[in-house]
Amino acid sequence: MKKVRIPDLARWKRQGRKITMLTAYDATMAALLDRAGIDALLVGDSLGMVVLGHETTIPVTLDAMVHHAAAVTRGASRALVIADMPFLTYQVSDEDALRNAGRLVQQGGVQAVKIEGGRAVAGVTRRLVDTGIPVMGHLGLTPQSVHQLGGYGAVGKTEETAARIFDDARLLQDAGAFAIVLEAIPSDLAERITADLAIPTIGIGAGAECDGQVLVSYDAFGLFDRFVPGFVKQYANLGQSIVKGAQEYIREVQDGVFPGEEHSTRTPLVVKKESA
To answer: What residue spans of the chain are helical by DSSP H?
Structure first.
């Protein structure tokens, strides 16, 4: 299959063809989603919660993101791979951001990075893009700002906050972002932004009128059940299947059923004859 490139996303928006994206954190999951035909894989800093067990995405380090990004890019052959830049890897200075994004591209092998925020990150977005590193924006609910936002609720519900998100989307487009994730904002606001922008919008809890959709794969496939957002549809319950499979394995081992004859390797005993 032909490799998905960044210009494909803009072309699909013009054609009205919806873009599909899921998160991936390892080579095996990446290969499976790639085989299914997913357009883009996001190595999300959500790995801090669904893989590493943190309460938020804030503790995720750049080293962790590079490690997981490299695994995903080894597993994916068709999908466009994008990596989140973790908290404080792009907010301190443009130079830091360029150095850190460069590691994700050089060592992690990703084709693009994603950063959260609007006006405050427009300058660094432009700097990265001018250097040749494609940037995806992220507006609305921005998990790295969870403490400032006061939780993971929907945003953009007032005229003032909706206008700010709308203006921020234009700023990110002007700064060179190739797409923008819109998370947990009213669907009518997402629809207006999508109609206004020339670049694609990727929704998550933002309605059906975005140019594409993204979900955390561990949510979508039932691997993470500590908290499941209301906008998530579970397409499988792999967590329950794994628990049942593990319970069956435990029983069979304890009962002496596994390994059986068909799962055992029998090596003929070779008796060495002593020379006379």
So the answer is: 6-15, 27-36, 47-50, 62-75, 94-106, 119-131, 146-149, 159-175, 187-196, 217-220, 238-255
Chain-centre distance for alpha carbon 15? 24
pLDDT digit string, tens, across residues 108-128: 999 999 999 999 999 999 999
Print the domain residue range for 200: 6-241
Residues 6+ positions from 73 with CB-CB distance below 8 Å: 30, 81, 108, 109, 110
CA dist 242 and 140 (Å) reads 34
Q: What pTM did the predictor assign?
A: 0.93
In-domain check, residue 1: no
**What is the chain's length?**
276
Q: Is 55 a catalytic residue?
A: no
Domain harbouring 92, CATH code? 3.20.20.60
52 pLDDT more than 90: yes
- What residues contact residue 29 under an 8 Å CB cut-off, 6+ apart? 72, 75, 217
Catalytic residue among 55, 116, 160, 183: 183
Residue 186 lies in a domain: yes
CA 139 to chain centre: 15
Q: Examine residue 142 and state whether it is found in any structural domain, yes or no.
A: yes
